[in-house]
Each structure stands twice: as structure tokens, then as C-alpha cells.
Amino acid sequence: MAGPVDNYAVMGNPIAHSKSPVIHTLFADQTGQSLRYTAILVDVGGFKKAIDEFFENGDLGLSITVPFKEEAWRLAEKRTSRAEKAGAVNTLWQDEHGLLHGDNTDGLGLVADLKANNRVSIKGARVLILGAGGAVRGVLEPLLAEQPADVVIANRTRSKADTLVECFEDKAISACGFDEIEGRFDLVINGTAASLQGEMPPISGHVIDQGTCCYDMMYSADETVFNRWCREQGAGKTLDGLGMLVEQAAEQFAIWRGVRPDTRQVLELLRNEMA
Ligand code: ATR
Q1: Confidence band, pLDDT 50/70/90 cuts, at residue 275
Q2: CATH number of residue 158's parent domain
Q3: Mind telling me the catalytic residues?
Q4: For the chain, which has fewer Cβ within 10 Å, the N-terminal or C-terminal residue?
Q5: Which residues constitute the domain of residue 114?
Q6: Within this chain, do residues 172 and 206 fall inside the same structural domain, yes or no?
Q7: Which atom of ligand 1 is nearest to 132's Cα?
Q8: CA 26, 82, 107 angle in degrees (round to 5)?
Q9: Is 213 in a helix, a strand, or coil?
């Protein structure tokens, strides 16, 4: 007779379009791990109850997505240092003493997608990041750990970029408004929610040249508004956030199961499915 199933899930609201169940199920098949991974729609206001029930049931690990990442951070009893800095948690699990652990794998996912999948080096690079919300804060620590020469955070609301920079006492990081960006950059990352509205942050094309890699943290079947604009400005490379999604999931899988899956195969499959 088969033993109890190892259960994992993603919690969010909305959740219907989450690719996490497909990604983690492909990882499990590939690594020969026996587990079940589902998507759970959680009422706003019902998050604590939902995670308590999940772990009381003996289930093992959770991915957390919008809008619960900050609440997950508050509820985690132990946080990794990168999650601490991120102010948000996207991975939860319980240890043998019943203690709730939280991590944030988004930044690792971004760095892995840039370095391993696309051979984009961050060390010594001039990096421009557009946006200063939760998505950007979530990735800053692992990005800074790669020792870029310079990280400039540009945001529509300048004060939010200032506040974010204050959280990271790293000399290589500074804040500005969209109309104050100076020079060209090796890497330009869009972490604003502008793409969701089909808009482009109003920045000058001078930040981009043939040597620039542009990365939109959003992804879609068609080229994103940001990536199209960057290509038109002459960017050497444009990438979207699908690779980051798969890589952050691989980090979660490694935390829960102790084995890191091969992401390339899964990324190719998702890309073909979206086409
Ligand atoms: P998330 O968790 O996705 O980062 P958020 O914390 O609400 O969401 O942050 C959204 C980010 O996108 C902010 O940097 C926001 O700029 P403001 O701080 O000025 O609000 C940015 N943003 C949203 N819509 C935008 C638009 N149309 N143009 C430029 N920036 C936009």
C-alpha cells in the first residue's frame, strides 16, 4: 500500500493562472520525487488560518504569492537573512519542532536566470532598476551579493526609492527619479507594475546601448511593452521574467527536497506552451 503523500501547494489570490503546480510537478517527475503540488485560493484576511490548517494536516511546504508575501514574512518564526532583508517571504516550511521557516527565493531566481541561463554577468556591472515596490525589494540582497559596480534605483515616487536604499547600507546603491538617471547601464531591470497596465516607465533611451541587457521581471506570451521599447532603443539583449519564475521555483524545490532540478527543460516546455 502506498504511504501518505508529500503535499505542497501555492497560496495566493488570484491563483487560477499560477504556473507553479505545473513547474513543481515537472520538477518532481524529473527528479523522481514522489509528491503532490496544488494551487490553493485563499481569502484575503484568511491567510493565517489557511497556513495553520495546511501544516496541521501534516503537509510539507508552501509557495506564497500575491498578495500574501508580506504577511508570510510576518508569520514566519524563523527567516533566512535574505528573506529578512526582502521584507517578503515566498517559501514556507515547518521544521521537526513545528517551527515555521520563511525564505525568499525571488532574488536567487533572478540572478540564476541572468547568470546561468543567459550568461549575463552582474559582477562589476552598472545596474539600473526601475521601481521601488515589493518586487524590487525582494531581489535586491541577492543582486547586491553579486557585487555590481553600481545599482541605481529609479522610481516614479522618488521618496520610495530613497527609503528602499536606506534599507541597504551598501555604498554601491543609490536612488533617483525617472528624469534624473545619468549615464548608460550594462543591465536595466524593470520591476515596476507599469507592464501590467501596458505602460512604459518614462525614462530616456540614453541609458541603453548595444552592450545593455534589459530584463523585464514580468513575462507574457508576446514581447512585453518594456522589452519592445528597449529593443527599439538598440538593446543587445532583452529577457522576460519567465526564467526567473522557474529558477525561484527550483530554489524552493531544493529547500524542500534537497535536490535542485534541471530548469532548462522545464523553461523550454513552458515557453513552447505559451507560444
Ligand atoms: P510590487 O509588489 O509588484 O512591487 P508595489 O509594491 O505596489 O507592487 O510597487 C509597484 C511599483 O511599480 C512601484 O515602484 C510603482 O511606482 P510608485 O512607487 O511611484 O507607485 C511602480 N509603478 C506602478 N505603475 C507604474 C506606472 N504606470 N509607471 C511607472 N511606475 C509604476
Answers
A1: confident
A2: 3.40.50.720
A3: 69
A4: N
A5: 107-240
A6: yes
A7: 14
A8: 50
A9: strand
